[in-house]
Amino acid sequence: MSETSRSQAHVHRESPEGAPGAVGMRGSGARRTAAGVSELVQAALPLIAEWLPTQRWYAGKGRAITGLHPVVGTPLQVGDPALLHLLLRVEHPGGGADIYQLLLGIRSEQPTGIPATALLGRLGSGTYDGATLYDAVHDPELTGRLLEHLATGDRFGSLSFRRTPGSGLPSNIPGRASTAEQSNSSVIYDTSFILKLFRRISPGTNPDLELSLALSRAGSTRIPRVAAWFECRLERSEPATLGLLQRYLPDAEDGWELALDQVARLKGDPSPGNFAIEAHRLGRATAEVHRVLARSMPTARLDSAQIGLLAGAMADRLDSAVTVVPGLLRYRSALRAAFQQLTADHLEGLPVQRIHGDLHLGQAMRTPHGWVLLDFEGEPAKPLAERRLPQPALRDVAAMLRSFDYAAAHLLAGSRGPDPELAHLAAAWAARNRTAYCAGYTAGGGADPAATPELMRALEIDKAVYEVVYEARHRPSWLPIPLAAINRLALTV
Ligand SMILES: Nc1ncnc2c1ncn2[C@@H]1O[C@H](COP(=O)(O)OP(=O)(O)O)[C@@H](O)[C@H]1O
Ligand SMILES: O=P(O)(O)O[C@H]1O[C@H](CO)[C@@H](O[C@H]2O[C@H](CO)[C@@H](O)[C@H](O)[C@H]2O)[C@H](O)[C@H]1O
């Protein structure tokens, strides 16, 4: 890191209790009382610079950090422990920058029960000399405090906590950090609520809040009801969504885990259970969500120019993916040809609407009352404005089809050396469930994917290209899964 900046820091002087600007350590001596937010932020920056790139949700992996600039710092609890909310701008070479949300706990004594990966270290000399800085997501007392702010609808400077009417929020429940593999961080409050803290922040309403609220207000039971959220006004535009509190689904099973469990038993028993029934129901649930979204949010129909733009955007994404994973280059001309087949002849008037945007089995939870869909944030790598654009609803269908392929490929990845029998069983499992999902989608009132094969193929390729980049950045050992799909899809063009 070449630079950390004091000048750009904009810190809120209001504090929830105590003297203005105080984040001081209660009962630990005068030198630790009434310390300013700016001083704390400056003391924390070197520790943050070391810790940030090690986090699963950090999107700048592999890129150097050229600057760390506090954007807004807000004390949410003063004393010992203290809770500091911090929006931090992280700059990369070439002018790229992202804003991250951090919730920092500060305790004079080493906190107990905090995983090593959540400890940033000890603050150096000054007011906070020797205090431990850590990711407060793992501190039940501090995350309980966050729930209280949501329950009371508090406001600190540009940070606002908002409740939905009648959400009946309790205020005295400690939170526990979710252990799920995820792009953000979540905190669970007994079996009642789950708070997602978005990590990479963009100005504007996050589609997860926007779509979940629209579906909640329309009475849909296919998503966990929205109870509250919090946001920050970064610029003059719409506030940026920082966190989303929804009902927790205590009896739910994750679709990805269910699918893997079935796939793992394929070799011993070629017909273990019948996931295809679940795949069909999931298709129906997807269609139902699409219908409600089409009723409650703007829709449009594509003209020939927009069809050209759709195909052009896919080709552009492919080109930038080739720069990240050069192994894609050999498929480039075949994949571009697939995109060029998206023409006005068969797609003019195609309806577009708001969609989930990153649908996969891990975003589907099977509950005693049927499938529920989660995480309407869209693909985290895309700019927020792009994620909020109306899209062909079949984009979600294509994404889920890729997920059946992933589950089957996961089985093969675990086998020692080539296993043709297993490969056959896995491919048959994926094909069966893909067909069942599409049939369920059509039966539920969605467009028949078989009616637009060129569109479906292009959408699947586009998703697999995204996955190639995602895996290269986050899970390089999984890269062969989308690459194998690209190879297969290229052969069909
Ligand atoms: N309302 C909920 N009830 C139960 N579990 C949930 C709920 N919301 C999320 N989860 C769990 O947390 C995981 C991550 O949630 P998700 O919204 O996908 O986060 P991210 O955007 O960070 O990936 C999900 O896969 C699921 O296991
Ligand atoms: O759930 P997220 O919003 O964090 O989505 C990202 O991570 C997903 C993996 O956790 C990733 O999904 C890809 O891997 C899944 C298996 O782990 C597979 O079922 C999906 O089909 C595949 O796309 C998703 O793409 C990414 O945005």
Automatic annotation (TrEMBL):
Pfam families, alphabetized: Mak_N_cap
User: InterPro entries given for it?
Assistant: Kinase-like_dom_sf, Mak_N_cap
**Record pathway:** Glycan biosynthesis; glycogen biosynthesis
Tell me where in this chain the Maltokinase N-terminal cap domain is found.
51-139
Query: Biological process (GO) annotations?
Result: glycogen biosynthetic process
Which Gene3D superfamilies does the record associate with it? 3.90.1200.10
Which GO terms label this protein's molecular function in UniProt? ATP binding; kinase activity
Keyword terms:
ATP-binding, Carbohydrate metabolism, Glycogen biosynthesis, Glycogen metabolism, Kinase, Nucleotide-binding, Transferase
On subunit structure and binding partners, the annotation says: Monomer.
- State the name under which the record lists this protein: Maltokinase
Which source organism does the UniProt entry give?
A: Kitasatospora camelliae
